[in-house]
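About this split. The held-out portion is used to measure sequence recovery: a designer receives only the structure tokens and must propose an amino acid at every position. Recovery is the fraction of positions where the proposal matches the reference. Here is one held-out target exactly as it appears in the evaluation file.
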């Protein structure tokens, strides 16, 4: 009545097999949909690079470069963050460069944010500058205009000032 049916074998691919078949790492990167998780009890000293998603609840002293990052309230980064999409609920001391940035109410940022789109919830704290650009992950865009001081136009007398001068000359 309850007989075991034969389960179909599960096919597992290794990174080497995928690269051999496709000739590139792109297929491997697209297959990796599981986020990398750094728990609240983990402290990492050094840089982290991943093309996928990163869930950060621990602390990192170093630079992060990832596809997307979600930082929990206990997450701490001392270094720069570069990603396509960033959601920050924790503390960052360093520059954030991302196409899409979302600072939630518990976020504390000490550094500049370079973004294409941004949202900030009430309560988020920022000590730094926001800079909008179309390509936030490019650190030195060639087409970026240089900062030049604005010169004020020469002052022209108004009608009231002209009338006052005419009365004083009488």
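Reference sequence for scoring:
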């Amino acid at each position: 009545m309850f007989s075991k049916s034969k389960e179909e074998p599960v096919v597992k691919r290794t990174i080497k097999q995928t690269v051999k078949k496709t000739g590139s790492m792109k297929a491997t990167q697209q297959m990796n949909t599981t986020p990398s998780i750094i728990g609240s009890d983990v402290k990492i000293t050094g840089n982290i690079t991943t093309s996928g998603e990163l869930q950060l609840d621990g602390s990192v002293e170093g630079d992060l470069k990832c596809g997307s990052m979600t930082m929990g309230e206990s997450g701490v980064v001392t270094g720069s963050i570069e990603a396509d999409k960033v959601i920050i609920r924790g503390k960052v001391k360093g520059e954030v460069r991302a196409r899409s940035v979302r600072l939630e109410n518990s976020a504390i940022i000490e550094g500049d944010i370079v973004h294409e789109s941004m949202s900030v919830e009430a309560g988020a704290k920022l000590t730094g500058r926001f800079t909008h650009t179309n390509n936030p992950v490019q650190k030195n865009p060639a087409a970026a205009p240089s900062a030049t001081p604005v010169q004020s136009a020469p002052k022209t007398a108004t009608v009231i000032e002209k009338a006052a001068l005419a009365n004083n000359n009488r």
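Annotator remark: The two ends are 120 Å apart (CA to CA).
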